[in-house]
From TrEMBL:
One Pfam entry name: Cytochrom_C
Species for this entry: Sorangium atrum
Protein name: Cytochrome c
Keyword Metal-binding: yes
Signal sequence, start to end: 1-21
UniProt keyword annotations, A-Z: Heme, Iron, Metal-binding, Signal
Keyword Metal-binding annotated: yes
InterPro entries: Cyt_c-like_dom (IPR009056), Cyt_c-like_dom_sf (IPR036909)
Cytochrome c domain: residues covered: 29-110
């Protein structure tokens, strides 16, 4: 089979667009469970190493690395830390064990993203 130059270029483009910070992270079982929920509940506002609406995972991991339960507390009763962005909504309706899984994912993925840089 002969490859079309356009197809080859498209495949190279797709490969280049993958997020290496997410791809290279070997997650613990708890963080792996949290990754899917993070994608659904959090990814619209938080990226691995760049600010969207909320801070990047690398910044959150730096703040809470030794206190993953702090992420859970913040998710249940968030405050407002930055005047230039909307406040985070409460995730009070999400089970605490699920929030703990998300927190572990944030710490592991954020730590990896911080090592790789922006």
């Amino acid at each position: 089979m002969k490859w079309s130059p356009i197809l080859a270029a498209l495949l190279l483009l797709v490969a280049a667009c993958k997020r290496p910070a997410e791809e290279a992270v070997a997650l613990s079982p708890q963080a792996a469970k949290g990754k899917a929920m993070f994608s659904t509940l959090c990814a619209a506002c938080h990226a691995p190493s760049s600010k969207l609406v909320g801070p990047p995972l690398s910044e959150i991991a730096g703040l809470y690395r030794a206190d993953p339960a702090g992420i859970v507390r913040w998710a249940v009763t968030p405050g407002r830390k930055r005047a230039d962005v909307p406040p985070m909504p409460s995730f009070r309706g999400v089970r605490e064990s699920d929030l703990a899984d998300i927190a572990q994912y944030i710490i592991e993925a954020g730590t990896a993203a911080g090592k790789q840089g922006p």
